[in-house]
Amino acid sequence: MSGYALLSLGYEITFSLLNPDPKSHDLHWDIEGAVKGYIQPLLDKLTPIANFSVDSQILYYAILGVSPRHDASIDGYTLSADSLPHVINPVEARLGSNAASSFPVLNFLLYVPDAPHSPLYIRDHSGKTVPTNAFHSPRWGGIMVFNVQEHYGEEPRFPVHINIDMVRVMGVFLAQLRLLLGIQQVQAPPGFLLQSPGNEGVTDWELDRLLWARTAENIATATTTLTSLAQLLEEIGNIVINDNIAEQVYSAVVSLQLAVAELEAGNLAFAFQASKEAILSSERAFFDPSLLHLLYFPDDQKFAIYIPLFLPMSVPILLSLLKIAGEYRKRRSERVKTD
Fold it and tell me: pTM (2 decimals)?
């Protein structure tokens, strides 16, 4: 599932309207109503899997990182598939982020081209125009180009007042969100019909499939974390394990065993909850403050730090001991000669 969003117990979803030319376009979008009608039903059904927070913003004078090329055959401008990766970085600098949250952010950008570069179309690797005029980037989000030249009329008066068609926009963003969360599009075999997602945006069988996949990922992640912790403890011989760490490791192992048992029994919801507990317990044990200083300050680094400090002090002491030993031997030999 490398193309999907990072495995997390929560996600922040940000919808951004990019208006690079506010002098020409007076844009209005009912993002609150659109999220409530199209996105929130999907998020409500995915509540057992993760927690979600949604916000929105409007960015003015936000431009793309690449210059579109004019195509006389369509009397417009185009973005090639090769240039799409270069679009994200310059725009991302304007998006901002919530530093107080540790959850990954999924960005959905609606870009309205400026008047001199309208209309603007996205082309795939074969050179064909993308029907949705949108693309998505794995683990990051999606961008949709929304052309508004049909609102100009014969003699437009700028800024042109434009109401964004949120039905069309949310249809694209909802499909991209499903992909980013790991809800794959499945083709039905000949003679079969698949259940429609309806208003909820996801069917029961798709939710079960997602639960199974996320549970398997959680089990693999928790197992890897515990294995890394065991290897760390074997390498550090003088380590002292606190009771709290031992309890977290024991809890993680028990939760892993329960998750595997529930998964084999087909109880996906219980298996997923147990796998989440396994991840939380294993990470609490691995990142315990009492272990972090050993992880980043092993014995070889101790020697590298303390030897330069104690070596200069030990040289005079060693020379003094050698001098004392020499004098002792000298006195002893003189006493023997006297006798």
Answer: 0.78
